[in-house]
């Protein structure tokens, strides 16, 4: 059984194109405490590859990702 995470912050990048979802994510991750999560909402299809790559490069944890219609939702945990 997995616990439901309460996001510290929701970042809305709906309607914005690359590189804005990643720029907004990069800026927002520093605003939350270590160990907490944020949720990124995006419609840019490139984010499906960009967000996991960003998480690997920055060593933050991509906890969850899903697509619902045209909206991609990502939950990212700040690790440092």
CATH superfamily: TusA-like domain
**Could you tell me the strand content as a percent range?**
25-35%
In CATH's first tier, which class applies? Alpha Beta
The parts where pLDDT drops under 50 for at least 5 residues are none
Write down the secondary-structure element order: EHEHEE
Q: Whole-number average pLDDT?
A: 94
Q: Give me the number of helical elements.
A: 2
> CATH architecture, please?
2-Layer Sandwich
Q: What is the strand tally? A: 4
Globally, the shape reads: globular
Q: Describe the main β-sheet briefly.
A: 4 strands, mixed
- The share of residues in helices is 25-40%
* Rg measurement, Å: 12 Å
Model description:
The structure is a single chain. The chain has one domain: TusA-like domain (Translation Initiation Factor IF3, 2-Layer Sandwich). Helix content is 28%, strand content 32%. The chain has 2 helices and 4 strands. The protein has a 4-stranded mixed β-sheet, covered by helices on one side. A hairpin with a 2-residue loop joins strand 3 and strand 4. It starts with 8 loop residues before the first strand and ends with a strand. The model has no long low-confidence stretch (mean pLDDT 94).
Quick structural overview:
The chain is an alpha+beta fold and 80 residues long. It has a single domain (9-77), classed as Translation Initiation Factor IF3.
């Amino acid at each position: 059984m997995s616990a439901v995470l309460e996001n510290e912050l929701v970042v809305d990048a709906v309607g914005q194109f690359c590189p804005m979802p990643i720029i907004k994510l990069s800026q927002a991750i520093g605003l939350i405490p270590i160990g907490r999560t944020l949720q990124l909402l995006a419609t840019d299809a490139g984010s499906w590859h960009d967000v996991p790559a960003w998480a690997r490069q920055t060593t933050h944890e991509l906890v969850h990702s899903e697509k619902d219609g045209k909206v991609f939702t990502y939950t990212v945990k700040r690790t440092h």
